[in-house]
Each structure stands twice: as C-alpha cells, then as structure tokens.
Design goal:
The structure holds 2 protein chains of 2 kinds.
Chain A: E1 5-7, E2 10-13, E3 19-24, E4 31-37, E5 43-50, E6 53-57, E7 65-68, E8 75-79, E9 88-95, E10 105-106, E11 110-114
Parallel strand pairs in A: 2-11
Antiparallel strand pairs in A: 1-3, 3-8, 4-5, 4-9, 5-6, 7-8, 9-10, 9-11
Chain B: E1 9-13, E2 18-23, E3 32-38, E4 45-50, E5 55-56, E6 61-64, E7 70-75, E8 84-91, E9 106-111
Parallel strand pairs in B: 1-9
Antiparallel strand pairs in B: 2-7, 3-4, 3-8, 5-6, 6-7, 8-9
The chains are: A mainly beta, B mainly beta.
Chain lengths: ~120, ~110
C-alpha cells in the first residue's frame, strides 16, 4: 500500500541553525501539506502546496519557513533559523485531488528538537 | 470551519463496542463529517467520513443524527490497536485546499 515517508525520523539542531525536513508524498498525489504538533498539543496546519505554489498558509508559517518540491517527488520544509519553540513533530501529508471527499494521507513525522 | 465538541477521554474493554460522540451544532448543510485518528507516536490517519446517511467501512461505522448536529463513530469490537486520539472534523465542500483543523479529540483507552 502506498504511503507517505519522511526523513529524518528525528532531527536535533542548535538554535539559529537551518533545518530541512524531507517528505516523499504518494506518487500520484497532487496536494501536499505540512502540519506540526508540539508535545501534548493539537496538530496544527502550517501550509498547503499545489501546482508548485503555496495555496494556503497559517500564521505560524512566517518568513522563517519555506517549502519546495525540488524534483517532482520530494516535498521539503525548511526552517531558516530555528528557535526553541520550533521543537515539535512535523507531519507531511498528501492528497490525491481536490474535492472534500479525498482523504489526506499522513507520514510518520519528523521529531525536531531545537537545543 | 464549524466547531466540534468531543469528550476528552473514553475508556473501553477489548472486544467490546465503542461509541465516540461528536457534537457539531453549527454544522452547515454542505459540511462533511470526517474522522481521523492518531495512534501513539504516529501521524493521523483517516477513518471515515459522511454527509447525511450512516456509513460503514472496514475500520468503523459513522452514525449521523437526523438533524446532523451530532454524530457517533462506532468501533464494533475494540482492539488494543484502536487505542488512539480520535478527531471529529468538519469540512465544507467549498474551496480546494481542505486543510484539516484538528481539535483536541478524544483519547480512547482500550483495556485488555
């Protein structure tokens, strides 16, 4: 069964460093998402991406964040200068097409720890 | 998106049915009711969705009240693997992004 994969599973970084979180969505999917979940809190939407551009972003997704689909298979989330409060689980998700009935498939997440 | 209300936690015994309620009194006529769950240390996963009629799939059943102001996710025989946080989410049919807005959900504990 096709699945969304994410690497690395755990990333430890120093405050102020740049990190890139990688995701490989399901191959024929067209819509891509990043969510994050701070420990013990709700899953929060960060950004959605379609047709090589951001279609929606939340207030959390400020200038320190960027997304890219560099090669038609990977989908990346970059945090330019990490802060302590960026420590969280980051989930990538993908969806086949538009339409409210299409489910989102989530990856297993990357745990980001900022020291 | 309209708001949903779910109990913080519920407990069940293995192999017994579980009924997880969700209230959504401000649901609009075009809102679909989606359920996702999050197993420990995993990403959320889709469970089921419906609009007006009750729905069944291999994972669960969804019972929707006639006035659509509440719904119930039914796990017919809970297993230990069903221990998770269950999220009830409303999605309108307008727009295309369909980002998911998660609440706190219901933490289901399954006792052996």
């Amino acid at each position: 069964e096709p699945e969304v994969t994410q690497t690395p599973s755990h990333q430890v970084t120093q405050m102020g460093q740049e990190v890139i979180l990688r995701c490989v969505p399901i191959s024929n999917h067209l819509y891509f998402y990043w969510y994050r979940q701070i420990l013990g809190q709700k899953v929060e939407f960060l950004v959605s991406f379609y047709n090589n551009e951001i279609s929606e972003k939340s207030e959390i997704f400020d200038d320190q964040f960027s997304v890219e689909r560099p090669d038609g298979s990977n989908f990346t989330l970059k945090i330019r200068s990490t802060k302590l409060e960026d420590s969280a689980m980051y989930f990538c998700a993908s969806r086949l097409t538009s339409g409210v009935l299409n489910e989102q498939f989530f990856g297993p997440g990357t745990r980001l720890t900022v020291l | 998106d309209a708001k949903t209300t779910q109990p913080n936690s519920m407990e069940s015994n293995e192999e017994e049915p579980v009924h997880l309620p969700c209230n959504h009194s401000t649901i609009s006529g075009t809102d679909y009711i989606h359920w996702y769950r999050q197993l420990p240390s995993q990403g959320p996963e889709y469970v089921i969705h419906g609009l007006t009629s009750n729905v069944n799939n291999r994972m669960a059943s969804l019972a929707i009240a006639e006035d659509r102001k509440s719904s119930t996710l039914i796990l017919h025989r809970a297993t230990l693997r069903d221990a998770a946080v269950y999220y009830c989410i409303l999605k309108g049919s307008g727009g295309s992004n369909y980002k998911l807005t998660f609440g706190k959900g219901t933490l289901l504990t399954v006792n052996p």
